[in-house]
Specification:
This protein is an all-alpha fold. It is built from ten helices and no strands. The protein starts with a helix and ends with a helix. The mean pLDDT is 96.
């Protein structure tokens, strides 16, 4: 039987984020909330992963400091994210994560794979991830410069614009 958070997220239709905001309020103080939220981020049901990653992004934007154990689980599950929306939400959340050098390496490799995605918005945000983490971890500067150069030649204006803003 699904938990309360899972049940709330299952009501998400992919559009009405009010359902997700209500899920945060209803479940945010429940024991095991963060553990369950992080696990649901990589749920094979795309709509559940989309909702969970949206909630996690909102929590991080509101100042949540994700515990290192939860960050490690999240990073380990990146390859299991079932949809472009879930990937996008995590790309948009990277700045709020306290990553170790090894975790940053994993996240950068994941973002590099997204740099060829069909969706330009996801390509633009994957570039943001690479550049942001390269600014934190100097050992990845060359990768960031290569990603910026490639993005400047991207056919999508949104990707080129993101590259200009990140320079």
């Amino acid at each position: 039987m699904p938990s309360g958070l899972d049940r709330h997220i299952q009501e998400f239709d992919g559009q009405n984020i009010t359902v997700l905001a209500e899920a945060r309020v209803a479940c945010g103080s429940a024991p095991g909330y963060l553990e369950e939220l992080v696990a649901l981020c990589a749920d094979p049901r795309a709509s559940v992963a989309d909702g969970a990653t949206w909630i996690l992004k909102a929590e991080l934007e509101d100042g949540l400091a994700l515990p290192q154990e939860m960050t490690a689980r999240l990073v380990a599950s990146l390859g299991d994210l079932p949809s472009w929306q879930a990937r996008l939400h995590l790309c948009q959340s990277v700045e709020a994560l306290d990553l170790s050098a090894d975790q940053a390496e994993t996240v950068i490799r994941w973002a590099q794979a997204l740099s060829n995605h069909d969706r330009p918005f996801l390509r633009a945000w994957s570039l943001h991830v690479i550049v942001t983490l390269a600014r934190r971890f100097d050992s990845h500067r060359a990768e960031a410069e290569a990603a910026l150069a490639a993005a400047e030649a991207d056919p999508a204006a949104s990707v080129r614009a993101r590259a200009r803003r990140l320079h």
